[in-house]
Amino acid sequence: MQTPIQAHLARPIVCGYPGVMEIRLRGHHLLCLLGYRGEGYSPQFTENMTRIYETLRNAPSTRIRLVEGEDDICSAFPREVESHCCEQSVHRRDDAVLRRLQFKPGDCLSWNDILKKTAAHVRAHDIRAWCSTCPWRPLGYCEAGVSRTGEGGSLPPLEDTAGKQTHAKPAAVRFGHCAGRQRSRR
């Protein structure tokens, strides 16, 4: 039996192309995927993120629907940890990334097209500016991913970057960001 996340990711959704799978992503997750190392907020989150990552790595023609607010990565955020998706700083980060890439919510394009635009318009120093409040930023993964993309690289196999799958959480995330706030459905 499929989990709801597996069913959601396996659905054939039309993105202007009959029978083509679509993954819904918010702006800043386009960059998070470039630096993904097989780590996440929980085993379920990591499994979901790994599935999305591997789909894009193995099938870069996969269609991406850009969304405002929660996406297919957020859908697996652990319910027992307060979500940071509600933070305005996260929405501002999404907006900054989409503006730089000249995209907007609702756009639908291939992962390959996103990689090309990212290589042309985003640099590692942008991560430092846009993601200064992200608890993952000090690890440097996303800067390295943006640099690799700028050099014409694509998503590497996870074993090339992490060697093993862990469920590490930066200390600031372990205890949540939005204490007392409800999850936003923007």
Concise account of the structure shown:
With 186 residues, this protein is mainly alpha-helical. The protein contains nine helices and three strands; from the N terminus they run αβααβαβααααα.
SSE diagram, text form:
Elements: H1 4-10, E1 22-25, H2 27-35, H3 43-58, E2 63-66, H4 88-101, E3 108-110, H5 111-121, H6 124-130, H7 141-150, H8 158-161, H9 171-174
Parallel strand pairs: 1-2
Antiparallel strand pairs: 2-3
Outline the structure in words.
The protein has 186 residues and is mainly α. It contains 9 helices and 3 strands. It has helices at residues 4-10, 27-35, 43-58, 88-101, 111-121, 124-130, 141-150, 158-161, 171-174, and strands at 22-25, 63-66, 108-110.
Give a quick set of tags describing it.
9 helices, globular, about 190 residues, three-stranded mixed sheet, about 5% strand, mainly alpha
Radius of gyration: 15 Å
Shape: globular
Profile the largest sheet: 3 strands, mixed
Strand order in the largest sheet? 1-2-3
Distance between the termini: 31 Å
Secondary structural class: mainly alpha
> Which series of helices and strands comes N to C?
HEHHEHEHHHHH
- The tally of strands reads 3
